[in-house]
Amino acid sequence: MFFVLTISAAVFFTSGGALMKHSEGLSRLWASVGCLSLFVVGAALQALAMRRTEMGTTHIFVVGVEAALALAFGLFFFREALSLPKVSGAALIVLGVVLLRR
Asked: How many CB atoms lie within 10 A of CB 85?
């Protein structure tokens, strides 16, 4: 259940971040409402995941998955460039998350 909750939280947070970009600094109403709503759902899912696990490990896990998803969202939805430093940084984050869960 931990993985379902944390990965879902990361998906909601990353989707909220994508809407944050579309909100143009929270100046577009529906993108802003969607952004904030997705962040609230993500936080609720993360809180549920933290009920039986350590706060630090859970939070870092969610942020790590979110970072990898944000890189993917940037590539696919915003046509951002991929570079060796970006891939290396994401790989280090994922490795850190794996180490924390062991």
From this structure: 8
Residue 74's contacts (CB-CB under 8 Å, 6 or more residues apart) are: 80
Question: The whole model's pTM is what?
Answer: 0.88
Question: First-to-last CA distance in the chain?
Answer: 16
pLDDT digits (tens, 9 = 90+) for 32-74: 999 999 999 999 999 999 998 888 889 888 999 999 999 999 9
Q: How many domains does the chain have?
A: 1
Continuous H helices in 1-102:
2-22, 29-49, 55-77, 84-100
Which range of residues forms the domain containing residue 95? 2-100
Q: What is the largest CA-CA distance in the chain?
A: 43
